Amino acid sequence: MRRLTAAAAAALLPLAAGCTVAGNADSGGAVRVVVGYQSKTINTVTAGTLLRSLGYFEKRLAELGKAEGRRYSVVWQDYDTGAPITAQMLAGKIDIGSMGDYPLLINGSRAQAQGGDARTELVSITGYNLRGALNSVVVANGSTARTLRDLRGRTVSTSVGSAGHGTFVQAFKRLGLDPAKDVKVENQQPSVGASKLQSGGAAGLAQFVAWPGLLVNKGQARLLYDGGSLGVPTFHGVVVRKAFAGEKGKVLQAFLGAQADATRYLNTEPVKAAESVASATGLPAETVYLYNGAGGIATFGTEIKPELRAAFAQDVPFLKSIGVLQKPLDVQSFINDSYLKQANLPAVEPARIKGTDEVCKKPVTDPATAGEVWVAGEAAPRPVADAVCLLRNVRALQGKQIRAVYVPDAANGTRWFADKQIWVADGAAFKPFATQEGAQRYLSAHPGAKAVSYDEAVRRA
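Structure for Solute-binding protein family 3/N-terminal domain-containing protein, as requested:
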């Protein structure tokens, strides 16, 4: 909206007690920088939850302030979704924010429509997956649905305009179905949708990280559709008010440098990073590590890759079709990686599973097959070379408590909980599939193969 009434603006712009307008001095005379983030959207942690806990931004601002002869203070504001962060930015109340790709497009569109000092820019990336596996559709454990097509004529809960919603719509259309007619979509917050799924009020839940993994890990749902099947990149990123970047470019440089520091920490200390985020959010560390750990579903880096730029532009028609983008968006002017280039930050290598598989007695080198077994009481998960070796490791650990087991899906390569996957025995080989559809497709192509339970696979491997 170009204009808000005073009452509507007050409702949309809740600020912490004692806060002043972003960029102004606080009561102690320090220049205030306001950062909006989503603590439970764990693929933004290098610009939010983890960054805040590490204190890297404050440290860099202290160094900047010392050189300039002034003081800076950081105000962190936590939200459930990107929408209120956008509203705050349009009002000049938040300087820097982080959110998913679809909310970023909405942010840019509304900021460009309002114009002037409200304009915003996408300046860096946090977590991404080039195949779209950060978004998924889950169903209740007792559901009869085996494929996305089985949700036809039923109710699906999602957050309209989110990346999870977009994945569902695109996947549904690929089946030749009309998401506007062939399914009832209810626009709900993820937590509400999760409750609806448990109560039977929704047949499916289409959401973004970390909700699918959380519900499956807790034994409250199973994966019906892996967003990695879509092959469309999805990501999260950092957006800044253009006026703020122009006035306080060195502060933005400090933020990007601190984000790079946090990214390096996450990739070099993935277990500590996951446990830190779990402690701050209340999410299980095992779920956080599924996405953010070594070989995780998310890759963390700051570069705005060409594949992400292209996917960003391709997402615009979908958001227009559902009426979320009411004004045209100039994607090219919204994306600005010049600040990253000016910062001249060293490249950060993604976290990989490394080491030696102690049971199979071989090095772990192939990220397409490498998995991990996380034993209770051990500082880090044990690396395993492939799916069969993972089963052998689990068998060798009988009698010990295992926190989590991770292995890539044999169809799409998406890392998932091994004990929640569908296992197929094909001769001496055992293959894990994150969805029943993936397993059935393999079984149909390999008549001699047979589906087995996880426990049986462990026993026979």
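The longest strand covers residues 120-129.
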